[in-house]
Amino acid sequence: MADEGGLAAPSAPAAGGGVGVGGQAGAGPTSVPAHAVHNHKTSGSVTNGPMLEEIASLTSPRLFTPNPFSRKNTSLDVDDYFTGPRDIQKHSKWPIFLQMHGSILPKMVLPLLAVAAWASLITVISHKVQSLAISTVLLTVLGFVVGLCLSFRSSTAYERYAEGRRYWAQLVLASQNLGRVFWIHASERKDVPEDQQEENRTREVLEKLTAMNLVVAFSVALKHKLRFEPYTCYDDISSLVSHLDTFAYAATRDDPENTQLTFKRYGFFKSVGEYLGVSFAESNPRKVLKRAGRPLGNLPLEILSYLASYADELALAGRLPVVMHQTTAYNNIALLNDVLVGTERVLNTPLPIGYSIAIAQITWVYVLVLPFQLLSSFTTSIWLTIPATVVAAYIILGILFIGREIENPFGQDVNDLPLEVYCAQIAAEMDIIGSLPTPRSRQWMESPNNRVLWPLSNSGWPVWMNRGEANIREAVVHKVEATFVSQRHREIVAEGGRRSISEKLSRVKSSV
């Protein structure tokens, strides 16, 4: 039985924040990917008399663009397996030490082959010509220094990784707060003529949805900015900012040749080189910025200007009558600006190049000297020097390469932050906030399913409403005792179950 005065449960959103709004002809209801339906566009100027039959209704067949936020992909292509941030929603049943997705091993293939060849050369010379073994004292001294260097490299890299994640968590928090302020706390306009109230309510709903879409657009624009993709031609943002006057939109429109540079099309050898971590095959990530023929602006910052102007209009029109709501709106817009500046700081302040070069050189010197020192340890069979050197190099270079990969947590490496997932989360949460009208407390409080004194009683609000204040207060006092007794009962039952199991095990052992 439905609750009296309760709110109807919304339909389950589709992956990426879609909400069900219609279906195709001859089929059941289908889900619409959020922020993926393109607006109906007409050539020429907009008039007051468009072809209304061209505008799709909620029940008419319509074509949908793919969800740009979804990263669901079941293929096993190399491009999906070794590149792009790892999808945290996927689960692998392989033991962690056997998993390849997310492993640094592909980028270590060539270095390990080089180390194996070097160790083989040293071993062959020692066996055929002259022994090249040296004292292991150097191994101990250099090992201590290399350990300090790798510890410093790993700690600084992970600190940047964790800081980047904290900024995106703040972005999610600010987005939720702004969505709630725009949708829940912003009231309707006052003094609207009665014959214009319906149009005014429709306009206000569209205004709120537009502002919430800008919150989503900010997160997506920030993701592209951190990856040196400054244009608006990407599938996940083009429909969100096409109505805004921004430098990025103008550059996309007037500089199509440079825009295409953001879509990587590499040949076979260059792609394989990137998979294997060959530095000569890596392109300059800022190449698009350097070749721009128009000012690119700062798209996330420009979006914040539009959000701030909407907050000003709400405050000046008296639609945020509670001062705290105005403060919340402005504080969270400022928090978005802080996230923008903070993520740019993480991106543009890597470990000083002097440290990076010195740590890499010290590590490689240690690895290359290893065969000379291991020769004196394997006196019975010097050929064990080769696999021992490779294993040691894998351990040492693996830590070095991991630190280099996560130093920039916003990139496209497998171990980088899954920014697409965070953007999809924000988009879905904006849809969830806007999926219902502003809830009224009396509606959901007075529901028969509101068991106000559970677990003492399963009676709903209407039952207790008829019992009076005195009975309710007395029941609240008894609820404390009932909760305590119930908790002790669960503990006794659990302890009895453990005792019965131990007794059964004892009987089995004694019978054996």
TrEMBL record:
Membrane-spanning segments: 108-126, 132-152, 353-375, 381-402
Coiled-coil zones: none
Subcellular location as annotated: Cell membrane
PANTHER family associated with the record: UPF0187 PROTEIN YNEE (PTHR33281), VOLTAGE-DEPENDENT ANION CHANNEL-FORMING PROTEIN YNEE (PTHR33281:SF19)
Name of the protein described by the UniProt record: Uncharacterized protein
Pfam families: Bestrophin_2 (PF25539)
Keyword rRNA-binding: no
GO terms for cellular component: plasma membrane
Top-level taxonomic group: Eukaryota
Assigned keywords, A-Z: Cell membrane, Ion transport, Membrane, Transmembrane, Transmembrane helix, Transport
InterPro entries cross-referenced by the UniProt entry: YneE/VCCN1/2-like (IPR044669)
GO molecular function terms attached to this record: chloride channel activity
Membrane topology, as annotated: Multi-pass membrane protein
Location of the region described as Disordered in the Swiss-Prot/TrEMBL record: 20-48
